[in-house]
Amino acid sequence: MNVLVLGSGGREHAIAWKLAQSPEVKKVYVYPGNSGMFIDSKLEPLSRKVFTSQVALINEVKSKEIEFSIVGPEQYLVEGVVDSFLSNGLKIIGPTKKAANLEGSKADAKTFMLKNKIPTAGCKVFSSFEKANLYAKQLKFPAVIKADGLAAGKGVFIADSYIAAKPILEDLLLKKKIGNSGSKILIEDFIVGRELSFIVLTNGKFTLPFPCSQDYKRLLSGDNGPNTGGMGAYSPVDFIEENFVSHVIETIIDPVLRGLEAEGNPYFGFLYAGLMIEPNGELKVLEFNCRLGDPEAQVLMMKMKGDFFSLCRGLVNNDVLQAINHEDFWYPDKVTTVVAASKGYPLKPEQGNRILIDDSFFDEKDTKIFFSGVSEKEDSLVTSGGRVLSVTSMAKTMKLARASAYNGLGRISFDGMQFRKDIAL
Predict the structure, then answer these.
(1) pTM of the entire structure?
(2) Contact by Cβ (8 Å): 159, 141
(3) Of the candidates 97, 130, 162, which is a domain's last residue?
(4) Last residue of a domain, one of 60, 82, 97
């Protein structure tokens, strides 16, 4: 059977890699993909062309006899690609455009959470710089400033004073430095605690929780520097209690699914809740994403022992219980991933630098490169984006997994390569 993964980053590489491990899969197509991921022999570009419309994309999908598709990035979701596929009789894993607004608009997501009694931080929403600035002058800091729309993980800012907050507000609301995504902003209460990523795969009725993971959003070690799309992750986390997963399903995930269904927008696909565990043990939702996280996907696909293709096929056919009815769907091992980014990321990443990989890397077991911002020039891989690649390793202990990931990263180089040195510490 043939399947398709939509997207071009490390998350999509990991999804495609895992699907390709199934003996039932003939080909895994990726669109648009990147040059690095097609080193894997079972991964193939859907087309070398760039489709200018969803109609052209759908026609290509039909011609390839694809069983189902999986959406990786959020942009496709908010543009309604799932709606288009479904209306053309194509099976696809991902929420509809209306359901994906849970990620597409942080302001709307806040309204939804309050309506459905989902715990979250207090906030105010502004589209006027003057009103936001006036509010910030009387605010108790630190505070979190968020762009309302999609910003590829770079629309969240933590200000520790009004002096720090004012230029952020100017950049977003006056200078439009991230475009329409920042034309509306949220000023949110700063929450102290331990952050983690809680991800499920659901058809709205049956929900499969994935192992909890933790990612690192700041660019530099010690949680310094600007926010990014994510500089590393690990799983499982070791600071949750035994009933934590069932508690999150009951108090957060189920209310989301019921609330969306009540609005006529049943949810289908991956749902990601960014959670904060406060010192008193209470939970707050920081954000919802309507897809697998990146780099969490790299960690979770490595940790998955079961047949991902069978799970997804069961989901699209409303017959998922048989696909996961065994105790060892996940390896008990620990997994770490470390992201290597271009110089200048996240503001102005350099491009076109040749990527050198020691041949011995590919002899490693349980260590894998997932490519993100990579293209090809003169038969060499070169950097073409902010986050270039990630090295993911699995081992019996977190210490060993971490050491293997950094050891692998040490055999890769490109000019200006930057990465955090404290992932999974």
Answers:
(1) 0.94
(2) yes
(3) 97
(4) 97
- pLDDT tens, position by position, 183-236: 999 999 999 999 999 999 998 878 889 999 999 999 999 999 998 999 999 999
Round to whole Å and give the CA distance between 151 and 80. 17
Cis-peptide, bond into residue 45, ω within 30° of zero? no
- In the block, residue with structure tokens 């507000």: 169
Beta strands in 141-268 (DSSP E): 143-147, 156-159, 185-189, 194-202, 207-209, 214-215, 218-220, 224-227, 232-235
Tokens at residue 397, please?
């202990």
Considering the domain boundaries, does residue 424 fall inside one?
no
The total domain count for the chain is 4
Give CA–CA dist 209/119, Å, rounded: 19
As a whole number of angstroms, the distance between CA 162 and CA 58 comes to: 49
Average pLDDT of the residues in 62-71 = 96
Cα–Cα nearest to 3, from 21, 37, 26, 33: 26
Q: What angle do CA 227, 232, 238 make, to 5 degrees?
A: 110
| CA distance linking residue 376 with residue 383, whole number of Å | 8
Assigned token pair, 26 = 């003939």
Tokens of 197: 């990523």
Domain that holds residue 169: 122-189
**pLDDT digit string, tens, across residues 141-153:** 999 999 999 887 7
